Amino acid sequence: MKRLEGYRGFILERLRKINVEIGDEIVIEKNNEIIEGILMPRSMLGDDKHVVIKLRNGYNVGVKIESETIIRLKKKRKIKVERKIESIKKKALPKIAIIGTGGTIASRVDYKTGAVYPALTPEDLYAFVPEIEGIATIDTETLFNIFSEDMTPQHWTRIAEKIAEKIEEEYKGIIIPHGTDTMAYTAAALSFALQRTPIPIVLVGAQRSSDRPSSDAAINLICSTHVAVKAPFAEVVVVMHGSSSDEYCLVHRGTKVRKCHTSRRDAFQSINAKPLAIVKPNGKIEMLMEKYSPRREDREYELKAKFDSKVALLKMYPGIREDLIETLIDRGYHGIVIEGTGLGHAPSRLLKTIRRAIEEEIPIVMTSQCIWGRINMNVYRTGVELLNAGVIPGEDMLPETATVKLMWILAQTRDLKEVRELMLTNIAGEINPRTTHGTYLKSWIR
Amino acid sequence: MKRLEGYRGFILERLRKINVEIGDEIVIEKNNEIIEGILMPRSMLGDDKHVVIKLRNGYNVGVKIESETIIRLKKKRKIKVERKIESIKKKALPKIAIIGTGGTIASRVDYKTGAVYPALTPEDLYAFVPEIEGIATIDTETLFNIFSEDMTPQHWTRIAEKIAEKIEEEYKGIIIPHGTDTMAYTAAALSFALQRTPIPIVLVGAQRSSDRPSSDAAINLICSTHVAVKAPFAEVVVVMHGSSSDEYCLVHRGTKVRKCHTSRRDAFQSINAKPLAIVKPNGKIEMLMEKYSPRREDREYELKAKFDSKVALLKMYPGIREDLIETLIDRGYHGIVIEGTGLGHAPSRLLKTIRRAIEEEIPIVMTSQCIWGRINMNVYRTGVELLNAGVIPGEDMLPETATVKLMWILAQTRDLKEVRELMLTNIAGEINPRTTHGTYLKSWIR
What we know:
The structure is a homodimer. By secondary structure, the first copy, chain A, is of the alpha/beta class. Chain A has eleven helices and 21 strands. Helix content of chain A is 26%, strand content 22%. An eight-stranded mixed beta sheet of chain A has the order 7-6-8-10-11-12-15-16, with helices on both faces. Chain A has a five-stranded antiparallel beta sheet with strand order 4-3-2-1-5, with helices on one face. A four-stranded parallel beta sheet of chain A has the order 18-19-20-21, sandwiched between helices. Chain A is elongated. In chain A, α4 (153-168) packs across α5. Chain A has three domains: 9-75, SH3 type barrels; 78-303, Rossmann fold (3-Layer(aba) Sandwich), CATH 3.40.50.1170; 311-423, Rossmann fold (3-Layer(aba) Sandwich). The interface between A and B is large, with 89 and 88 residues.
């Protein structure tokens, strides 16, 4: 069966007739114009009137096919790619490992029927992002293929353990394609699970799938390959578009990053910290932070890959009832992160229940739904009372990062005093001791 | 008893000896320098070595008092202010109403013991923000005095009803000083509760209390007074610092605003929309949005002030368990707003429980924890399945606004079809039909 994922009806017939498949170079002649490129897969949600091809300049375009439009095969894909891989191997480029977990970047085609095409063999990657062939030799392994909203702490453990295996195999860096929905949570989890990593661990995603003309998949992959191969730092990072154009990607520290937009390509933003670096598709890496953990390929890393998933993240809102926290206590939750208001507050009527939780040895961590800024529970009475009750102030940690960290800590100890001490210790850049200037969102400017 | 709130020990004695109290003009002589200003109250958390005075240029300074420092009374406050009020009334300036609810802007002194000094009489306001005397005649009423984290939907009802009373009394505008923690929730609530208001309803707060040198209270109050008196729009808005300097305030639409920083003075930001206007302390108001509800002092407004507080806001995170939603169903909650991931997703293992909720006539609304952007549940399988289950997509509504709106709708109808229809109808600017260009946070720029 020829691979023609996403095409149907009239166009599917036309493509079948000339015996082409996804990845082949084709030529389209239309209104005396010639358009050449690689045939790309389509999303099932697309119409049956266009083919999508990747032009030589890297852009994808949709071309409307009418009955008089001519489509011809230019070059078969397979042979070319196989030859390419041989020649790439001969170049002795730095070796990196790619561990597939799923998400838009690794899936094209049909999200509706679940017929997801992993597209993570080296052949696929070289075919769709040919720029990589000049940068690295790639080994790929698909660990699982899930939507990132289905990622659980158990998946984090499996990814961390797989990374540890790969580190032993002496790669220059490791890339983890991941769905964007919960990529920041996984980045935080791996930052705690893998400490003092000798090489960069790079999470990368795409906000728009590779079969869409405006896809960010290629640039994000190219930039993350550069980071994996030669970045001076060895940390768990997220590499994603830094602007709505294709100019550069930003490298975000895994514990300080958050998806801040549902659809934009520059959705990922560093919060309460500068991004670690800028990386350009041409390979230029410019550091933005002076302090980082340097690449040291002989370093002994530490693997603590377990997470306790009996932790709840609870956002405060006016009218929230005590029964929500009561339930968490009654159902045997091991810890609670409160996404409070302002400097770290919760309604005073919850104080009694919060005290009960702490008496029952359930740690409560306070963070802020403001997202930017730092917890300071010494300013107002409510804060002081919560502190006195034993609530742990989350400093300038993101609520998401604090939740992941509490899950990680509780897998090691349930002792309240130890939990508090670890929670207040900066382990993987999640706590900035001082507020960095210029890291607040730029407000509306004329 | 002389009012000397916040002063203690050595300084309290010194101030008592010369028979001064808060609000008096005093002169301090120290190291051959003379400093003149109005004696301000202090926070109980301050030391006992400084007095805080408000200089003629509007800034507050703390002056260290040593045994050789001379303090003298220059002018008593009371007589002056009374005279002032008489003369202000004679000027026949536009009349505005101030309805006190509490918060930093209306409280100085001791947050620890709860001895909060309301400071909301016209005398207090004219004394501490003398700029107002040239703008408006003020009537003040303290409705209640609570920390905003303790605000509930029942409080929203009381505020809305009080505003309706005041509208009948023909004021030019109404100002509601409010704690900043949940000010955005109240702003959304009032936007739904009071429709087609004839005059502007202005919520205002302070990130730093008036007894701190860097307080934003004065500028925010001056700017909101200008808006109340003469803004061309008649909507529920939030007026707060627009930058970290004292240059201007921004006017945010009540349904599109959010506190985005725990401590900065420019914490409030419009999300997925431009601010409505810029207002400068000199009274200049510049519109940024072309469409708004204009001031029409004869308009018939509509008051629907009830809210159903049996609504939960639930933020998704990896590892979230079904039992959280199960509990909400079992405890008889009337509606749930999910703060999902990305374009509007929840883990697929929650699908069964979500279906059960909807079968039991509990509406589920989907919003995104990305904060910026729009829900689009048609792109991925998870979204499509949630839509098919009957989940209501929250468009580009803030999770906070969607929660308030669902509380407001459920106080009117429990019919699932009607709830869905109202939820998807733009009632108070909470849904932007098209994404406005330039409203995403500016990403990190060199």
